[in-house]
Amino acid sequence: MGFSDGVKQRLAVVIELGKTVFHYGFIPTVLYLGFKKGADPGMPELSITNLLW
């Protein structure tokens, strides 16, 4: 059973949107989760300036 052309086009758009969201959202999500967890005991505090330097 094959998909119609309209379904294939919508599926392609959804997959492309998913790739774009993953591409631009992965690193910020990892950074957010790391800052939310905080530093391990004995390590310096996390801050944006530590991230940049």
UniProtKB/TrEMBL annotation:
One of its GO terms (biological process) is protein transport. One of its GO terms (cellular component) is mitochondrial outer membrane. The keyword Transmembrane helix applies. Keywords: Membrane, Mitochondrion, Mitochondrion outer membrane, Protein transport, Transmembrane, Transmembrane helix, Transport. It is found in: Mitochondrion outer membrane. It is a single-pass membrane protein. It comes from the Eukaryota. Pfam families: Tom7. InterPro entries: Tom7. Belongs to the Tom7 family. This is Mitochondrial import receptor subunit TOM7 homolog. It comes from Hypothenemus hampei. The lineage of its organism: Eukaryota, Metazoa, Ecdysozoa, Arthropoda, Hexapoda.
